[in-house]
Backbone:
């Protein structure tokens, strides 16, 4: 579907879809030689997910962080979004009842207590919102720590040395472009290392991990110990690697 068709289908502006593309939140499956954005069925599924999270009060930055997380699961997200929407509906229903009672109170038909005047009007966090943030935020870090904890001291030491060697190599390449052959070779080494020791990382998951390097202060702080700005540099290089990998695959 072309961008105008998607905009009309969903009821949002073409400008909004362009913005989502510009910030890397929703990238069209294809861009024609004449510059037309073409959206696939998978793009539409992702847009649905984005709009559900947006309706639930998540910022675009938070949504991008969540859907690009290596642990993100669409079915789990839909189940959680349903819980959050039910919670929201319940809160709105209570506020409607409070408004109806308030009108009757103004007309002198009933008397309301102070507590009744504010029934349903509270701004405490939806309990499922924190669950979403933890599910696709902290768990990425916790998962890695759990795998490391299962290894022997010698295994951890060997892994740590290889890990640091790759980071040190990348730090020495900071003066080069993220898409240079040397940088891309080092990033491939990092990609292969992760797949060898921490499960199967798809290109999308690898790209999402790179985004975490700049979105999550814990990653940024630890990576930048090897060189100032290394987290951002790696994130950009991982993004280039993902795009090139997609091209190589078809």
Residues:
């Amino acid at each position: 579907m072309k961008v105008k068709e998607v905009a009309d289908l969903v009821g949002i502006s073409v400008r909004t879809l362009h913005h989502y593309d510009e910030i890397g939140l929703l990238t069209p499956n294809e861009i024609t030689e004449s510059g037309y954005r073409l959206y696939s069925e998978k793009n539409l599924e992702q847009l649905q997910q984005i709009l559900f999270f947006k309706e639930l009060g998540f910022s675009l930055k938070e949504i991008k962080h969540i859907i690009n997380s290596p642990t993100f699961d669409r079915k789990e997200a839909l189940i959680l979004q349903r819980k959050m929407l039910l919670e929201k509906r319940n809160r709105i229903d209570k506020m409607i009842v409070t408004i109806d009672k308030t009108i009757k109170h103004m007309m002198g038909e009933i008397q309301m207590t102070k507590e009744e005047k504010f029934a349903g009007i509270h701004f405490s966090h939806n309990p499922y919102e924190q669950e979403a943030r933890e599910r696709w935020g902290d768990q990425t870090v916790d998962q890695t720590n759990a795998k490391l904890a299962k290894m022997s001291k010698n295994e951890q030491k060997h892994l740590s040395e290889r890990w640091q060697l790759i980071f040190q190599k990348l730090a020495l390449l900071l003066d080069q472009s993220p898409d240079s052959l040397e940088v891309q070779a080092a990033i491939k080494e990092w990609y292969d290392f992760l797949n060898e020791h921490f499960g199967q990382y798809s290109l999308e998951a690898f790209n999402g991990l790179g985004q975490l390097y700049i979105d999550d202060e814990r990653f940024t702080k630890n990576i930048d110990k090897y060189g100032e700005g290394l987290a951002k540099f790696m994130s950009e290089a991982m993004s280039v690697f993902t795009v090139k990998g997609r091209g190589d695959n078809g």
